[in-house]
C-alpha cells in the first residue's frame, strides 16, 4: 500500500487530547505574579541601597578614625612647637647667665626657666624615653644649681639642654611627618569613599535600567505575540498552541487563550463531525432512494423477462427442445434477471437509514455487505477482494452506521493505494474477522507499496494527506479512529515500504457503559 492510505474522501477526525503540549494545557507550574515580581524588585532595590549605605558608613567610620588621629597629631605637633619654643627661650636664658656678673641671680633665673620648660615636657616624656632621661638629668642639674651655682654645673645644664632641644626637634619632625601621612591617608580615604559610592550608584542604576528594559521588552514581545496569536484564532487558526514561557498573569492569560483555541477547535471538530456524518447519512439515503427508484423502474421489465424465461425454460424442458442448452439458454436469462433484482434489493437494504445508537449486530454480515457495496466502485475493478470471516463471531453492540463509515473509508484507502500500482502487479485486498475472548478483530490487508515511517507516524493527524488536491482532505482516518474509540475500540495501522499495509480494528465484545 502506498502513502495515500493516510486519508479518505469526505471523512473527518478530531485529534487526541494527548497531542496537545502538556506545558500549555496541562497542570501549570507554580507561578510568580507580576505583583510579586514588582515586590521582589523593590526589595532587591532596597537591599542594594542598604548595601551601599552600610558600605559607605563603614568607610566613613574609617575616615572619622583618620580624622581623630589627624587632630591628635595636630595637637601633638602644636604642643611640641610650644615646647621647642620654651626650650629655646630657656637655652637663651642659660646662655645669658654666663655673661652676668651675679652668677647666683642668673642661676636662679635659669632654674626658673628650666623648671617651666620641664613642666611642659611632662605631657610627652612618657612617650619618648630619651626625652624622659634628659628631663631627669636636667632636674638633677637644677637641684645642683640650687645648692651650689657654679659655671661648670651651668655648662653641663646648657649641654643637656642643647641635647634635649635636638631630641625634641627630631620628635617634632616625626610628628609633622606623621601628620602629613595622616592627611594623605584622609584624602585617599575620602576619594575612595566618593569613587566607590559613585561606582556602586552607577552600577545599581545600570543594572536597574538593564533589568527594567529586558523585563518590559520581553513583556512587550510576549504581549505582541499573544495579540498576534489571538488575531490568528479570530481568523481561523486552530493549529499549534502558543508556547507559554511565563508563569505570571500574562502566562495565565496565554494558557487561557490556548484553552479557548482548544475549545474552539473541539467545538468546530464536533460540528464538522456532525456535518460529515449527516452528509454520509444523506448520501447513503440518496443512494438508497436511487436504488429503490431503479428497482421500482426495472422490476416490471425484470418480472416480464423472468416470466418469459421461466416459460421458455418449462416449454423447452417438457418438449425436449434440441436447442435447449446449446444456442438457447432461458435458464441463464432467468439467473441474471434474478441477480439484477438481488443487487437492487441489496443496495436498497444497505443504504437504508440505520439507528444512531448502539445495537446488537452481526459483524460478519456488516463486513460482507460493506465489501459487496464498495465492490461496485470503479476503483475495485482490477482488485481481487476476498473475505475470511470467523464463523464463531458473536454479535457485538455498536452503531452500525459508524462501523460502515470506517470500513468504507479503510477499503477506499486501500483501493486508492493499489490504484497507482503497475498493471502487471496483482492487486489484492483481504478482509478478515476473528473473535477473541474479550474483543473482535477486523483486519484489512492490501499488497500495495506500503508507507514510510515518517508518513505512518502522521496518518491519523487532522488534515494530513498525501493525496493530490481535490482527492483527499486528510480527515478520513482521523474520524475513523474517533468513531472506533467512541465504541470502546482501537484503530491501528501497520505498514512497511514495499510490504503493503494492514489496518486493524479491535472492538470490545462488551462495550463500556456510556454516561448519560
Textual characterization of the structure:
The chain has 516 residues and is α+β, with helices and mostly antiparallel strands. Helices cover 64% and strands 8% of the residues. The protein is built from 11 helices and 7 strands. The strands form 2 sheets. It has a 5-stranded mixed beta sheet with strand order 2-4-5-7-6. It has a two-stranded antiparallel sheet with strand order 1-3. It is rod-shaped.
Structural class by secondary-structure content: alpha+beta
Helix content: 55-70%
Q: What is the 3D form?
A: rod-shaped
Q: Which strand order does the major sheet show?
A: 2-4-5-7-6
Q: Write down the secondary-structure element order.
A: HHHHHHHEHEEHEEHHEE
Q: How far apart are the termini?
A: 41 Å
Could you tell me the mean pLDDT?
76
Concise structural overview:
With 516 residues, this protein is α+β, with helices and mostly antiparallel strands. The chain is built from eleven helices and seven strands.
Topology:
Elements: H1 22-25, H2 34-98, H3 103-121, H4 129-147, H5 151-234, H6 249-319, H7 330-350, E1 359-361, H8 363-374, E2 383-388, E3 396-398, H9 400-419, E4 427-435, E5 439-446, H10 453-456, H11 476-486, E6 490-495, E7 501-508
Parallel strand pairs: 2-4
Antiparallel strand pairs: 1-3, 4-5, 5-7, 6-7
Helix pairs in contact: 2-3, 2-5, 3-4, 4-5, 5-6, 6-7, 8-9, 9-11
Amino acid at each position: 500500500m502506498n502513502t495515500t492510505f493516510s486519508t479518505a474522501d469526505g471523512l473527518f477526525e478530531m485529534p487526541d487530547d494527548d497531542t496537545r503540549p502538556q506545558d500549555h494545557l496541562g497542570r501549570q507550574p507554580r507561578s510568580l505574579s507580576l505583583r510579586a515580581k514588582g515586590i521582589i524588585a523593590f526589595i532587591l532595590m532596597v537591599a542594594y541601597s542598604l548595601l551601599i549605605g552600610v558600605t559607605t558608613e563603614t568607610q566613613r567610620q574609617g575616615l572619622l578614625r583618620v580624622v581623630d588621629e589627624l587632630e591628635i597629631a595636630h595637637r601633638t605637633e602644636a604642643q611640641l612647637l610650644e615646647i621647642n619654643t620654651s626650650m629655646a627661650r630657656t637655652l637663651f636664658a642659660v646662655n645669658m647667665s654666663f655673661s652676668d656678673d651675679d652668677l647666683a641671680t642668673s642661676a636662679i633665673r635659669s632654674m626658673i626657666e628650666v623648671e617651666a620648660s620641664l613642666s611642659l615636657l611632662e605631657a610627652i616624656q612618657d612617650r619618648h624615653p630619651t626625652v624622659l632621661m634628659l628631663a631627669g638629668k636636667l632636674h638633677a642639674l637644677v637641684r645642683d644649681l640650687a645648692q651650689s651655682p657654679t659655671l661648670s654645673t651651668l655648662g653641663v645644664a646648657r649641654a643637656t639642654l642643647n641635647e634635649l632641644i635636638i631630641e625634641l626637634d627630631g620628635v617634632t619632625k616625626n610628628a609633622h611627618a606623621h601628620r602629613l601621612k595622616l592627611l594623605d591617608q584622609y584624602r585617599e580615604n575620602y576619594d575612595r569613599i566618593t569613587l566607590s559610592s559613585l561606582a556602586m550608584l552607577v552600577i545599581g542604576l545600570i543594572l536597574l535600567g538593564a533589568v527594567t528594559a529586558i523585563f518590559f521588552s520581553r513583556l512587550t514581545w510576549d504581549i505582541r505575540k499573544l495579540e498576534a496569536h489571538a488575531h490568528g484564532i479570530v481568523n481561523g487558526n486552530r493549529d499549534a498552541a502558543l508556547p507559554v514561557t511565563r508563569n505570571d498573569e500574562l502566562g495565565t492569560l496565554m494558557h487561557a487563550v490556548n484553552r479557548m483555541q482548544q475549545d474552539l477547535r473541539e467545538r468546530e471538530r464536533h460540528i464538522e463531525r456532525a456535518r460529515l456524518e449527516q452528509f454520509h447519512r444523506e448520501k447513503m439515503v440518496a443512494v438508497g432512494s436511487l436504488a429503490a427508484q431503479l428497482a421500482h423502474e426495472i422490476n416490471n421489465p425484470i418480472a416480464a423477462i423472468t416470466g418469459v424465461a421461466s416459460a421458455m425454460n418449462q416449454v423447452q424442458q417438457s418438449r425436449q427442445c434440441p436447442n435447449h442448452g446449446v444456442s438457447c439458454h432461458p435458464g441463464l436469462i432467468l439467473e441474471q434477471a434474478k441477480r439484477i433484482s438481488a443487487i437492487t434489493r441489496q443496495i436498497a437494504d444497505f443504504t437504508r437509514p440505520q439507528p444512531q445508537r448502539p445495537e446488537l449486530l452481526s459483524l460478519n454480515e456488516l463486513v460482507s455487505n460493506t465489501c459487496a457495496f464498495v465492490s461496485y466502485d470503479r476503483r475495485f475493478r482490477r482488485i481481487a477482494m476476498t473475505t475470511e470471516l470467523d464463523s464463531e463471531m458473536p454479535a457485538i453492540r455498536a452503531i452500525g452506521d459508524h462501523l460502515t463509515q470506517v470500513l468504507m473509508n479503510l477499503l477506499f484507502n486501500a483501493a486508492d493505494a493499489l490504484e497507482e500500482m503497475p498493471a502487471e502487479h496483482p492487486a489484492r485486498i483481504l478482509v478478515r474477522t476473528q473473535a477473541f475472548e474479550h474483543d473482535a478483530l477486523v483486519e484489512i490487508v492490501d499488497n500495495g507499496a506500503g508507507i514510510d515511517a515518517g508518513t505512518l507516524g502522521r496518518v491519523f493527524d487532522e488534515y494530513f494527506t498525501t493525496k493530490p488536491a481535490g482527492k483527499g482532505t486528510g480527515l478520513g482516518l482521523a474520524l475513523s479512529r474517533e468513531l472506533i474509540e467512541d465504541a470502546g475500540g482501537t484503530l491501528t495501522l501497520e505498514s512497511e515500504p514495499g510490504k503493503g499495509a494492514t489496518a486493524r480494528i479491535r472492538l470490545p465484545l462488551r462495550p463500556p457503559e456510556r454516561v448519560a
